[in-house]
Amino acid sequence: MVRISIPTLPKVPLVPPSGISLLPLPEAASYLSNFLEKGKGKTTILTGAGVSVDSGIRAYRGEKGTYSNPNYKPILYHELVEDSERGDMFRRRYWARSFLGYPPVRDAQPNPTHIYIAALQHLGLAPNLITQNVDNLHRKAYSLLSPNYDESSILELHGTLAKVHCLKHRHEQTRDIYQDEISRLNPVWDNEAKEAERTGRRPRTNPDGDVELHGVDYRSFEVPPCKICEKEKVKASMVKPNVVFFGETITPTVRDGSLNLIESSSSLLILGTSLATYSAFRLVKLAVELKKPILMITTGPTRADPFVGKGMNKMDRVAGDVLGKYLDEAVKTSTGKEVEDVKRYLHTGVVKRPPEVEGPRAEG
Asked: Residue ranges of the Deacetylase sirtuin-type domain (predicted)?
C-alpha cells in the first residue's frame, strides 16, 4: 500500500529575513525593477495560493491554511476513482461538498495582485506564467487587459475547477453545465446552496472548491454520470474535475511544458507560494540547477528556503505591495497600447478577504 501524505512546512522560517526583506517599499520595487530588466523579457512567473487570498479564497497553508489542520483529510485520487461501493461514497462526499464550494470560487474576482501579474505579462516583462492555482483568476485578470490574450501564456500546473471530464472517454465540459446537472438531480442540496448564497452563510470554502461539512449523510446525494457519454450511446463514465488530486500525477504535457518554460526562461519570479507541493518545488530546483536568477516574494516559510543565497533571493513580504509600487513607476513615462491597457486596469482589482483571515495578509 502506498502511503500518501499532505506536504507540510516548518512552523518558523528556515532562514532569518534577508536584507531585501527589510527594504522600504520604494527600494523593494527598485530591486524588482532591476531583476526584471536583467531578465530582458524572458522572466517566467510562478504563483501559488497566496496570490488569491485577497479575492476571498483561503490559502492552503499558513496559520489559517486548510492543510495546516492535522484533522483535515482531503479525498485522494485513488479513493475518488475506486470502482466499488466505497469509491461511490467518496464520490458522493466529494461532489456534494464541491457542489457547495464551487460557487464562491467561480464568482471570485481578480484582486490587484492578479492585475499586476497580468500587467507584467501584457507589457512583455514576464510573458509566461505557471500557476498552482485552480481558481481561473489569472485568466480573468489577463482577459481584462487583453480579451484576446494568448491563452498558452498561462500554464495551470494543477488544472482548473472551471472544467470537468469523464475518466473513460475524456469527454470535457464546463463546470457550470455539470453544476446545473447536479442541481437538477439534488433539489434539496440545491435549495440549501441557494439559501446559503442568499443569506451569505456559505460554509468555509477551501482553495480546491471543497467545503467543510460535519455530521452530513451523503448517501442521498446523486452524482451525475457523463451526459456526453449518454448522447454518444456509450457506457457512462464517472466525472472528475480538471484538477490534480493528491496521489494523482500531472499529465506529461503539463509536466514537460512547465519544465520547458523554466529551461527557456532567463530568470524565475516566484510569488505568493510556500512551494510545498513537489510539482512546483521541482521547477525551482531545476532553475537553481540551471543557475537561473531567482527572486521569491512571499511571506512565511517555504520549501525553497534552503536555496536562499544559493542562486535565490527572497523578500519575506506581500508580493502585491511590491508589484503595485513597481508598476506605478514603470508606466509613468512609458507609452504604447499595452501601457494604456495597464493604466486603465492597474488598480481595479477587487479585494474581498476570507472571513477567517485576520491580521497580516499571509500568503502561500
From this structure: 22-334
